C-alpha cells in the first residue's frame, strides 16, 4: 500500500453520526470500528467509534473517531494529520522528523489493533498520528 496523508477528526461521542454525514456529503465507502470490537465490550464506550475511514470516489480520505476512555474533549484541538501505510522505514523516518523538537503523546509502538502507532505534536504545534499497518488499508486508529 502507498503511504497516505489525510485529516483525522476527533469527536466527543458523535463520530458515527458525523462520519455518516460526511459520507452523505462526499459519497464513497465508510468503514467504522467500535471500541467494543477492541476489548471494551460491556463498557459505556463499547458502541463509540474507535476508528472510522471514509474513502470517496473522488480520492478523498477522511478518518475520525471518538475520544478514547479518559480523554477530555477540547474544541479547536479535535483534529490531527494522519500518516498511514505499511512501509515501516518510510513512516518511521517521517515519525523521527516530525517528533524531533516536538512532544510525543503516544510512543510509536505496537497497539491493541495490531499496527504500530504513535502520536506527537511537532515543534510548530501541529498534531500528527503515524500508523504503520501490516499490509492493511486501515491505519490511523487512535490509541
UniProtKB/TrEMBL annotation:
Residues 4-130 form the Glyoxalase/fosfomycin resistance/dioxygenase domain. InterPro entries: Glyas_Bleomycin-R_OHBP_Dase (IPR029068), Glyas_Fos-R_dOase_dom (IPR004360), PhnB-like (IPR028973). It holds the Pfam family Glyoxalase. Gene3D superfamilies: 2,3-Dihydroxybiphenyl 1,2-Dioxygenase, domain 1. This is Glyoxalase/fosfomycin resistance/dioxygenase domain-containing protein. It comes from Streptomyces longwoodensis.
Amino acid at each position: 500500500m502507498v503511504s497516505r496523508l489525510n485529516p483525522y477528526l476527533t469527536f466527543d461521542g458523535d463520530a458515527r453520526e458525523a462520519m455518516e454525514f460526511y459520507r452523505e456529503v462526499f459519497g464513497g465507502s465508510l468503514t467504522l470500528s467500535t471500541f467494543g470490537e477492541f476489548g471494551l465490550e460491556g463498557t459505556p464506550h463499547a458502541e463509540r467509534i474507535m476508528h472510522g475511514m471514509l474513502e470517496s470516489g473522488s480520492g478523498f480520505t477522511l478518518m475520525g473517531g471518538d475520544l478514547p476512555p479518559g480523554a477530555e474533549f477540547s474544541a479547536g484541538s479535535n483534529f490531527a494529520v494522519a500518516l498511514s501505510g505499511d512501509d515501516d522505514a518510510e513512516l518511521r523516518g517521517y515519525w523521527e522528523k516530525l517528533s524531533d523538537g516536538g512532544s510525543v503523546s503516544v510512543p510509536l509502538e505496537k497497539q491493541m489493533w495490531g499496527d504500530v502507532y504513535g502520536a506527537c505534536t511537532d515543534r510548530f504545534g501541529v498534531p500528527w498520528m503515524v500508523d504503520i499497518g501490516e499490509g492493511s488499508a486501515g491505519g490511523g486508529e487512535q490509541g
